[in-house]
Specification:
Rossmann fold, 2 domains, six-stranded parallel β-sheet, globular
Length: about 400
């Protein structure tokens, strides 16, 4: 089959499935993306760039929409070039969030198009107004209504959709849910696996292993959406209760979701100033962004892994931490509860309660042996629900093949 994937940051959520499909010589896999250095063996990259950035003084409600139109237009042009060169996909699969899928049907109207629908924005029950760090603004409702126009245009442009969790699927209007399948992109549980001999070197003389008392926190960006401010506020009490514990924090000083701090400083700088000398920085180690191998080692030596999130998109890092056998203390928020059952494969805590978080983590550290089953059960649950090779790959390839042949019923 001929597969065409679309994602501005190749390969994005399609890394595992594109690599698998490209390994079959019967398939031709083409990927349209913006320029970046990433490569996958057997995958043909076609780069695009929008003609210009969104207009600086355009109404802020429609800035994202204009950006989506510019991206969609550039992808449409790339697809026209592919068609002129004789390429015709049997199916097109692409992330809708940045507008890349909007005009594909104007090149191949009868080719099935499957959109990745990651999040439908709303003012109730999700991220907006969840935490006082981002207070609700008077115009959030109309702003988000226009922001969702990209989702709605994408839903009308595609034949089918997919999203990684049921909670994310439920955020979309009921009218569209029968066309959106819940299929996670999958975790390589053979790679994200426990390893007794894992080591993290902090410097030439300090090497940490599973024998040490290690609390871990991972986020692409150290920001409120992933509970960084709550985690930091828990540390003084936690470190006081556990005098031998060390904290490893992976993540960069930028913002992926939500806005920057009003001061313009990073949230790490803001929290360090807030905590001052109450925080023992000799035992708190900010690693920044690290290589994947180092990130895995951090998880593999973890005694307790903390994962906090607004009601928003669930991070890969939580599932990889579970797959690595971590004892996860997670926020009692809807996306986490879909995977983490309190007392069975992890522990839940009120997102906003830093004192409760400190007490919960300290309790696990005090009785690591008694909590070991949580880590084993965490890995088992990820293997059963999210393992790419055994669960996701057959489900996703069957779905795409069925859609390509017109043999798919409504999503359950």
């Amino acid at each position: 089959m001929n597969y065409l994937f679309l994602h501005q940051n190749f390969p994005g959520q399609y890394k595992n499935i594109a690599r698998h499909l490209a390994a079959d010589p019967a398939n031709r896999v083409v990927f349209v993306t913006q320029p970046n250095p990433n490569r996958l063996q057997g995958v043909i990259r076609v780069e695009y760039q929008p003609a210009r950035p969104p207009t600086k003084d355009v109404h802020h409600y429609v800035r994202d929409l204009e950006g989506a139109v510019l991206n969609g237009q550039a992808v449409w042009r790339a697809c026209k070039r592919l068609a002129a060169g004789g390429f015709r996909p049997d199916i097109v699969v692409g992330h809708n969030g940045w507008g890349e899928t909007l005009f594909v049907k104007d090149v191949w109207p009868d080719v099935p198009l499957v959109g990745y629908f990651e999040f439908f924005y709303g003012v109730d029950g999700a991220d907006v107004g969840f935490d006082p760090v981002y207070p609700v603004r008077d115009d959030d409702a109309p702003r988000l209504r226009i922001k969702n126009s990209i989702n709605l245009l994408g839903l009308t442009a595609c034949d089918w959709g997919h999203t990684p969790t049921e909670w994310q699927r439920r955020q979309f209007p009921a009218l569209y849910r029968p066309r959106i399948f819940c299929i996670h992109e999958g975790i390589d549980t053979a790679v994200a696996a426990p390893r007794d001999d894992a080591v993290v070197a902090l410097d030439d003389t300090t090497r940490l292993t599973r024998a040490d008392e290690i609390v871990t926190y991972v986020s692409r960006s150290l920001e409120p959406y992933r509970g960084f401010h709550v985690f930091m506020r828990a540390l003084p009490a936690l470190l006081a209760r556990r005098p031998h514990a060390r904290v490893l924090i992976v993540g960069a000083d930028d913002v992926s979701y939500g806005g920057r701090h009003p001061s313009g400083r990073s949230f790490r700088e803001v929290m360090l100033e807030e905590l001052g000398d109450r925080l023992d920085l000799s035992r708190v180690h900010f690693l920044g962004r690290v290589r994947y191998e180092t990130y895995l080692a951090v998880l593999q030596i973890s005694s307790v892994h903390v994962y906090l999130t607004f009601p928003f998109v669930l991070s890969w890092s939580m599932l990889e931490a579970m797959s690595a056998g971590c004892i996860v203390v997670g926020s009692d928020t809807a996306p986490v509860r879909e995977v983490l059952a309190d007392g069975q494969n992890g522990l839940l805590v009120d997102f906003h309660d830093a004192e409760a978080l400190a007490a919960k983590v300290a309790g696990v550290l005090a009785e690591r042996g008694d909590h070991a089953a949580l880590g084993r059960n965490a890995r088992k649950s990820v293997q059963e629900r999210f393992d790419f090779n055994r669960v996701v790959r057959p489900a996703f390839t069957d779905l795409l093949a069925g859609i390509a042949r017109g043999r798919v019923a409504a999503a359950p």
